Amino acid sequence: MTPSGTATTQPRNGITVSRSDGSSGRPLRESIRERIYARIVSGTYKPGDRIVERDVAADFGVSRLPVREALRMLHTEGLVEMLPTRGVIVRQLSETDVADLFDVREALERLAFRRAAEKATKRDIARLGRLRVRARRAVAACDEAGLHESNEQFHDMINVFAGNALLVEILAPLEGRLHWIFRQNEDPQRLWDEHEELLDAITAHDAERAERLAVEHVQSNRTHVMNYLFGER
After folding, report:
1. pLDDT value at residue 25
2. GO molecular-function annotation terms (predicted)?
3. Which domains does the chain possess?
4. Strand residue runs (E) in the chain
5. Mean of the pLDDT values across residues 30-41?
């Protein structure tokens, strides 16, 4: 077992390789982070709930070290708090927290979508096309979880296709909270319908339209999420 909690194997050629949760090759802490994150966004762990390291380790059948590392990752992303008296708890985002997040998201996404429309390669557009197919299948199958995943992947792809390493670096610690925001919506199909328009603008390399639609998309999502979380205003 490595210090990170990732098990190792020794193949016949003498090269040590790491493994985590089967054949994925990812560090175990990342897999555990995703599983805890899924419980947060699904509401299994509610705001204010304690996440007990020992219990999670027993539940997932792993040692406590990779769980501790996963919780630190979620703390860095702003999804949990580490309190001296209570331990790790799921963070309760206030109305101000969510509003601030939307302000930052709008500023960054208008840049991301403009640059993606300007810089997207044929390969990038092909990847978006495949995502479109998966999302439409999720819509047809009434697969809400699959549609949420497609919506998240769409934004993640755009951030990369924008070709701005600093933008990706700035967004990295916000990613968990942004994905959580994407899920605070009773109608993921409406989000994907707006994504379809954005995808068309990027495919056409229409940067001005992509930027305008991105702003409208964030503002529309802001209204729905704020109403969903805090009531009609």
Report:
1. 73
2. DNA binding; DNA-binding transcription factor activity
3. 24-90 (1.10.10.10), 95-230 (1.20.120.530)
4. 8-9, 17-18, 80-83, 87-90
5. 92
